[in-house]
């Protein structure tokens, strides 16, 4: 912290007596006009970036609230660990793999690259000394900070689906590969200017596909390899509900995610240097909010009609599905179209959560309907409001990303299963991972209902 | 997300080898000076707006923490549903009802309007293409985003008072009318330039009356029509305390609201395009914090003196009452006056919570003392520091808004009671709304104390 | 709230019919260039300041989660009360004691002062009318708001260590002295331009020593005077673990602190008026995140190796220790050095938490390892990346601050113990402070495990 040049008014009289304090900067030290856009965009990245960081807490609360109390400590551990590992991996390899900026390892800018560059992330020097920053964009540090949060978000999606039955370390090893390689490689295909962007005209503004469906595909592959929790699906075909242990925290998590999503979608405008850009970011904030609201309302009304009573967890997931749905294109829709797009996201969740159960795929928190199914819907819906998108380009890109992530994940999960095993013993799972694997209960003072 | 023009330094060597990458924007693309104020104010709205959004989570946590565990799922459902419905209603009709900008349905700008315009909210086109934005203010999207959060806040206030004994759907129907019509119509009288503003010189900077007392009046009307919870007031005149089930969450909710209030009051400056405006916003942040702090300390000391022990829920409500009190005028007070105004808010809560009990009005979370009584105090207190305010103008405006909102709410609650009934059966209420109406417990894993 | 000059597009047609609405500001009212830096820096302080405010909630959740359920209401009460008292004391005396700006009571700028000025904090007048603000810095209100949050953070650190066994009022009286005098006086020695800054060249960017170790020293003194909780250390030398009652909230608290720390370190750059400054703030955000991540990962791996299972509370404290470690110099390290500095912070926590137990010092939440030990490490580590720092200057400053705060705190705790007693009776402590001292349980609905 530098020493301030400020004169508190309460001390102004005293200060007048001291002619030369030596603190004041040169009064002419106003920012050159060409720097203002750089400052504004960089600061916008820092603000929207910390909002996306906050989503890590949202996922942690949502998942801790939706698992049974005997697996809460484990779920919390996974969530803080996965974020931390993502932060390290994205620095170590992910950032430059995702944004090779011409230095493709396979492919080139002209043809649309396939595999980015291998190098650690490096920021500008302190005080920009000796650097000649590109004043038309933003500081490298702010961009890195913002982008790594997207990588971490992708990882957060996986942990919920696989909760309550996967051991800590194989899960974390998967996360290391996901955040260091799987996510950045496929993200480079679109956001790094790779082949999906240049050859297929794929449009995905903030990542319905690049982030959310990727988390969803990785989770789906894991759920298949891992199998359902013991007792979830009985032999007679009946489904045993396993209600979450703390709906207040699940609701808090949803509100946190909703808040963070303003940064997620808004920051993806990437520029806040003109009136036009800030007006677009404003549209995005308003549309994002509308889609979430209508996703929630759709689930509210549908569960009342279908089941005769409102289902809070569906309403929460409806809001999240609305958010995922608008993420591929939060800018071009009108508020009315945002309402439609988000509302359909909510409908998708209500209908596909039971579908997964029928397929005997055990998704503890509903992350696959929310992030994968609504993510696909949102990516397709781009064509409704953005004439630059083509249905073919969107569909083939969804398919290419999906096949890549699903197949690689399936292989990786299978390898991890073979080498170290994914699941705790049956007894450990029944006891709960908190006591069995970590030896620490989340709520030790309270008596558990049998 | 556009493709970035950035050159990560770690790849600079590689990049030098690629002469024409084609990503860079024109280097002369600096924001025109006249756009800078527009960008700054718009971004300020987005930041302060997301803070006010966050208050929705604060109310949800506060209320979930202050109700008994058997009604927590319901309280969470109401909170996320009311925010979502508010977001839709404010778009559908509220925004233009509140800011008719000349297009009054009844009245006109010269005389001060009475009823605004009926039209959905529409933002500027993408990229401002074809639009000629008013560069002296902010983007429509950012303004809409900010303003809708105030509408939602008003609705959040109502849910706490009526907790534990009102059915979901009549409550939500009331919210639809409140956010679509009652709130925006009375808000137009002041903030839309209507008759309270032009004829009475009413001053209410951020809504001690326009937001908080409105929520309070609607809640009071509801509490009267609805009656108290079963067992709250015994026939012998004794009052049965029904302690909140989770004070950690209630405290978290209070901190969230305190944080969000910086946006609530700060953003209400409406401009951040000059040194003067940002200095004013800074004053508002500091005053808002001081009022909350002193409200809390006042309740801390008073409950120690009066009851021989500190009452945490009073301290929390004291902080909130301090915040409500400073909301009508967070700019003109000195820090010392902010301390006084907020402190009196805290005192009001300590004395009026028992008063409501004596009147057999059952306010589950203390929202009426906090939002209505402290809101009235704060609105009157404007005259202490702002010479533009008159006691008469403040009082008559408080009365007009109060009569309008209270009477309309009373009628509406009565109609809803007649048509669909407001209360669950006695048995359902005793069981708790979570199991009886929603079939879903908030904390199913834990054994309840009888 | 002023009346907006905005024309919603949906009403544009109507508006055209109204020739003179009188709302519009002069279109030439663009911010003068020299004001832009002032606006940007002030707004940066408000944003980073509200993030640091949010840390108060983080400490409250962390501590409420780590104490036993019978002391939760008390811990929450202490946390909201200490923040409120800090806000008042910092206004009343702390701000000008810390930033005397020439008006030293003892010492002077030339020699480096020792004791600052006594006066309440005063902001610029509304609308800067009559003021001639220093446009090269920021508004006084924004600076005051930002700085008081640091004072409050120092106080928050103390409450965790002393939890579960100190009475409310002696604790709060200590906080009043700490925030009004101890913190600001020693902070003036560095950040107010006092003798540590001018004579020893002490470098402490955002307060590893000035904030965190100060809280740690005050807590250590308190823990020694107060003694351990009943039953913590058995006579046979065994240590009785007393697990936290709610690890979800402890994790939430950690995420909140992590988020708030971006403001804590980032805002300490003190200027955002140039490309260079915003690039530096960006570096700080990225480094802060990296240090936290690596602190968490270090504790994750170490506890697995040392104990055969991961310890979530250690991982949380590891992240926090990483944050404390980077706080003395978040700017000059590369991301790699931030990883090293933060990682060592995590290692320190894992090894020193058991050390305190051996010394029979009862630190309920681990605040001494996190804030004091990692704070010392971080302050020393400045020499690794900042050539302006000297090992001697850092060590002597750590020692001077440590001796001052520890000795004064020790005296103060001893006086409070003599005058009013610090501890509740043995029976009250066994019952829990919630029922014994406050008469209010945090979780009354739930059955406690014996």
Overall description:
The structure is a homotrimer of 450-residue chains. The first copy, chain A, is an all-alpha fold and 450 residues long. Chain A has a single domain (32-438), classed as Ammonium transporter AmtB like domains (Ammonium transporter fold, Orthogonal Bundle). The longest helix of chain A is centred in the first third of the chain and has 34 residues, at 33-66. Chain A is 65% helix and 0% strand. The first copy, chain A, has 15 helices and no strands. Chains B and C meet through helix 2, helix 4, helix 8, helix 9 and helix 10 of B and helix 2, helix 3 and helix 4 of C.
Q: Assign the CATH class of chain A.
A: Mainly Alpha
CATH superfamily of chain A: Ammonium transporter AmtB like domains
Secondary-structure element series of chain A: HHHHHHHHHHHHHHH
- Count every helix of chain A, treating DSSP H or I runs of 4 or more residues as helices: 15
Instruction: Report the oligomer.
Output: homotrimer
Radius of gyration from the alpha-carbon trace of chain A, in angstroms: 24 Å
User: Which protein chains make the most extensive interface, counting residues with beta carbons within 8 Å of the other chain's beta carbons?
Assistant: A-B, 105 and 93 residues
Major sheet size, sense and barrel closure of chain A = none
Proportion of residues in helical segments of chain A? 55-70%
| Distance from first to last alpha carbon of chain A | 55 Å
Q: At the third CATH level, what is the topology name of chain A?
A: Ammonium transporter fold
The CATH architecture of chain A can be named as Orthogonal Bundle
Tally of domains of chain A: 1
Low-confidence stretches of chain A: 5-28
Shape of chain A: globular
**Mean pLDDT score of chain A, rounded?**
92
